[in-house]
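Predict structure. Chain length: 992.
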Amino acid sequence: MPQITNLRLLFSSAHTSPLFLKPSSLPSSFLLFRPNTTPTLRHPSRFTVFYSYSKKQRNHSRPLNITRRNNSSLRETDRKKGMAMEEAESFGFNRKRAEGRDKNDQPKTLQLKVRKLNPVNTICYVQILGTGMDTQDTSPSVLLFFDKQRFIFNAGEGLQRFCTEHKIKLSKIDHIFLSRVCSETTGGLPGLLLTLAGMGEEGMSVNIWGPSDLKYLVDAMKFFIPNAAMVYTRSFGPPPGSNGVAIPAPRKFTDPIVLIDDEVVKISAILLRPSCSEGSELMKEERTTLNASELGLEERRDEFREPLLPGSSNSEAEVALKPGDISVIYVCELPEIKGKFDPKKAVALGLKPGPKYRELQLGNSVKSDRQNVMVHPSDVLGPSVPGPIVLLVDCPTPSHLQELLSVQSLSSYYADMPGNPVDSCKTVNCIIHLTPAAVINTSDYQKWMTRFGAAQHIMAGHEMKNVEIPILKSSARITARLNYLCPQFFPAPGFWSCQQLGCSASDSRALSEGPVSKLCESISAENLLKFHLRPYAQLGLDRSGIPSSVASSEIIDELISEIPEIVDASQEVTQFWHGDRETKAEMIPMKDNKVMTEEPWLTENAFPICLEDITREDMEIVLLGTGSSQPSKYRNVSSIFINLFSQGSLLFDCGEGTLGQLKRRFGVEGADDAVRGLRCIWISHIHADHHTGLARILALRRDLLKRVPHEPLLVIGPRQLKRFLDAYQRLEDLDMQFLDCRNTTEASWDAFESKKDHSTPGSPVSAENIHNGNAVGLMNPNIDSTLFTKGSRMESYWKRPGSPVDNAAFPILQNLKRVLKEAGLEALISFPVVHCPQAFGVVLKAADRSNSVGKVIPGWKIVYSGDTRPCPELTKASQGATVLIHEATFEDGMVEEAIAKNHSTTKEAIEVGDSAGAYRIILTHFSQRYPKIPVFDETHMHKTCIAFDMMSVNLADLHVLPKVLPYLKLLFKNEMVVDESDDVVTAVSAAS
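Prediction complete.
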């Protein structure tokens, strides 16, 4: 513990003069000490502390500012000090640590947490973590909780945000187990690893367990996650089969694999591979009569994808396992509960109270103090109670079900197994089914469930529609409040569609019940539902933690009670969309017969020509994620949905949870339609908060369009992203085409147009091929796909040195141009920005159009900065933009930090838009230190608005956009706090 040599505490308030006290005069409850850290206060909201402490060769002091709530809105000048009071779990996110480098900027290895195990756990339970329950976009997770250990099963998208919302500490997680390796179960893993790597002094890591396909996921993630964060990955089972290595059909991998076996818990894995009966679809796709082990790698890869040859039999066939095919049943067994010690029996056997009692309780025999006999534990202990057993079952397809029904290693857990000795039978207390309803509802699966006797079955598969209980409650509350204030920019969330249609309580309950077996004890899973395992007296279900249903009307009632003037404000905002204004004065918000604000832009009449005769079906910008670095309770990470309505849509960036955000915005079925209509996804740079939701979106689109003729989706991004996608596609086909951002710069487009005009027959893009417009068919046969076989839908290209655009990229560029034209767009142009290597911004330009009288109206222009410092390339690209969407990670008082991290401040972002003549500026990508609304200087906001998650800006509403800003300040007036001593404004996280 550091020595405190010169600690002075200054207590002040509005009613007392400053008072200096010595440390010894303070109650110990006011101070907290941690090794190698400075002291903090248990009650920080009351005091301002000035302290200094000394170490060897170190003696300095620094102030720690702690603020009081105030409704004033003053600019903050020192954010770092205000951040010192954030929750202790994060210890401040450190990007260098997250990148796997130590304080000397050298590579390091993250250490696992070492915990002292407690074999007698007073509390143990399994709990449903309902990630995706309201959106069906990802697998739920399951928490196995012990006093000193935490185990999580599956890490789908949104897990980190879910844990933040429900106060589940990431730093306490010891092991993560995957039931399958695919985007549905692992989408949240990259962000989780990066966050853990940035925690504490040296960073943290966890054990990751999964079937052998885990290797492919790790190989893919290494392109943007430091190896130090993934050194504790452990795979098990047969070797991966993506190379076409065939597994003989009779061979089984269903013997339990013991992963953990200590005094706390034994966790075993039973592998399920899909069964390939004759005539099955899986067999037709994957079976081959050739002995793959005798072929070369490339030949085996081709033959692995060939259909079953006619006349081949099951006995001759060998099953080739594709990556992602294997699923896992996890068996969690707690140690037995020893019987109660009977002191009367011990005395009768000649024992004196003392250490021998303890030895007997530990299972050791001792010699009697008064008799010449040995006393055994069974002589003085009551009968032991078998330890509770929990199974987690993931049976994703009917093909896996056939294997499940034949697994012999589960026979010792069956209650109806004939010939099983009673002593050898293990009683299963709880089974959590991650299996989809389509499989659960089969008669075979239902009968299999009955074999476990009185076990409690919890059905956690996602098949619910329009669930009205949002999992991210804090975000839902913010969205509901914004919707009340301005429904035009903040539409009602999709998960309340059931309520808005007037469904009764019984109807909505029926929607959420899902598959439930009538043959055994089973219930539908609910978010935060627990099944207690210890103490044994509480064995069973616990619903006390399940969040209650919250109707939007309840949230609005609370809002009106808290801010009564919001009623008038909402009515005033609504009037902005009415065209019957007679006087300029009516356009200005009023309060108590006084002008509420005097912002000159409220009466601004300038209107770009490109918006003339614009309709509500032309284009809408939907801000799906507006936070930076990592998701928080209130803001998800970066993603922007460009809705072109009947002409399709695009995505700019695709951070983790993008699919879930789409479903919250448009509803479950509406989001599926949006994914089907995607024309292109554009990724700005390789940082994880901008692309880790991409695989889940692509996988869903592949499944939605599986039986419909379609083309691979265009993905445009930096070259590092291609490496990740190439590696990931060894695990899961994403049905896409990749194009480097460098091939979509202005210079590359010019080179493309020039070469296209001079193309000749035989060149990669001939005039005949251009006329046909078939981009897939334009591939140069001599150009091979990086990792994939002939016929694979993955087609990706590299830009070759020495040319603005290489010949291999021509077909994809031609395809992109055709897709843009079909969507009513003229151009998509990437430009370099100042952030990290290969970071880009993008310009999206609509094609010119004609109005009803034949007048040609120029197309609108949208510019997205990505992550960047202000730079000439961005200013040039933004010239005359209709909308500039610019990152504003930091507030104006943090210029040095913005420069250090290659981000922009609010003022800098606005200045870029002003200098470029942009009509409207939307600020996004706010640091998560601003939980609900960022700090900004309203002086420069004459054409600007602050973005929030789910904010939807229609082109037809752009003229109104800045007028809403003063009302947003009213809605969040209690989210700003100020230290009156030095006029420092600090944004704090208010409890929802």
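Summary: The mean pLDDT is 76.
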